[in-house]
Design a protein that fits this description.
CATH architecture: Alpha-Beta Complex
Protein name: Tudor-interacting repair regulator protein
InterPro entries: NUDIX_hydrolase-like_dom_sf, NudT16
Distance between the termini: 56 Å
Oligomer: single chain
Pfam families: Nudt16-like
Structural class: alpha+beta
Number of helices: 6
Main location: nucleus
CATH class: Alpha Beta
Shape: globular
Number of strands: 8
Number of domains: 1
Subcellular location: Nucleus
Helix content: 25-40%
Largest sheet: 8 strands, mixed
C-alpha cells in the first residue's frame, strides 16, 4: 500500500499546503520539506533513506491487549535502534535504487518504490543531511518472511544485530510496551520518524503517542529529584 498520498502531490501553481508536523510534546520537531524541495538541494547536502515495514496484526497479548500492528526496526552494531536503510550517493543512485541496494544487504527480499515514500526532514546538527523516510504495508506473513530472510542476510551479526518489533500498546502500569520501548536509544532521526509514521499513518492516536513519550520522562525526573534530596 503506497503512502505518498499522505504528503500530497506538489501543486502546479499557488502556495504549497502546510506539511504535516509531529506535534508531540517532548519531541523536538524536524523541519519538513517536500520530495521536490529535497531534490532541489545543492551538492553540499547528503541524503539518507530508511524504511519502515509494517503489517496489521490481529493478535492479542495475554489474550487481552490488542497488538494492532507489527512494525519492524533493527538493533544496530552500535547498540542503537534504527530502521533499515542508509546513506544514498545521489551521483550514482536514485533515492529508491540506493535504498533498495542497502535493504538488500540487511534484509535480502524486499524492494521499495517511490509510491512508498512518506516524508523528508532536515536533520539537526552540523552535518547537512536530509532524511527521507519510506513506509510499506505488508501482510503479517510477508513481514515474518522478511524477518527470517534478515537472519540470512550479509549484514546479520555484523552491522545489524537483529530485527525487533515495536510494541504499540501501553500496559496498565503506563510504562510497559511503547513507553519502555521509546526509552531506548535511537540513532539519528529514527525515533522521530517512528513517532511521525505512527501518527501520519493513524497507527497510534496522537494522544497515546504523547502519553508514551511523557511516561519516558517521569523516571528520569524522579531520579533527579531523588538525587537532589540526597544531596
Amino acid at each position: 500500500v503506497g503512502t505518498m498520498a499522505a504528503m500530497g502531490p506538489l501543486p502546479a501553481m499557488g502556495a504549497l499546503p502546510p506539511l504535516p508536523t509531529l506535534g508531540v510534546p517532548g519531541v523536538p520537531e524536524l523541519k519538513p520539506l517536500t520530495r521536490y524541495e529535497a531534490m532541489r538541494l545543492g551538492p553540499g547536502w547528503s541524503h539518507s533513506c530508511h524504511a519502515m515495514l509494517y503489517a496489521p496484526n490481529p493478535g492479542m497479548l495475554f489474550g487481552r491487549i490488542p497488538l494492532r500492528y507489527a512494525v519492524l526496526m533493527q538493533m544496530r552494531f552500535d547498540g542503537l535502534l534504527g530502521f533499515p536503510g542508509g546513506f544514498v550517493d545521489r551521483r550514482y543512485w536514485s533515492l529508491e535504487d540506493g535504498l533498495n541496494r542497502v535493504l538488500g544487504l540487511g534484509l535480502g527480499c524486499v524492494r521499495l518504490t517511490e509510491a512508498d515514500y512518506l516524508c523528508s526532514h532536515l536533520t539537526e546538527g552540523p552535518h547537512r543531511v536530509v532524511a527521507h523516510f519510506y513506509a510499506r504495508q505488508l501482510t503479517l506473513e510477508e513481514l515474518h518472511t522478511i524477518e527470517i530472510s534478515a537472519v540470512h542476510s550479509r549484514d546479520h551479526g555484523m552491522e545489524v544485530m537483529g530485527m525487533v518489533r515495536v510494541p504499540l500498546y501501553t500496559q496498565k502500569d503506563r510504562m510497559g510496551g511503547l513507553p519502555n520501548f521509546l526509552a531506548n536509544s535511537f540513532v539519528g532521526t529514527a525515533k522521530f520518524q517512528l513517532l511521525f509514521a505512527l501518527k501520519i499513518l493513524n497507527m497510534v492516536p496522537e494522544e497515546k503517542l504523547a502519553e508514551a513519550v511523557a511516561a519516558t520522562q517521569k523516571p528520569k525526573k524522579a531520579a533527579i529529584d531523588q538525587a537532589g534530596g540526597a544531596a
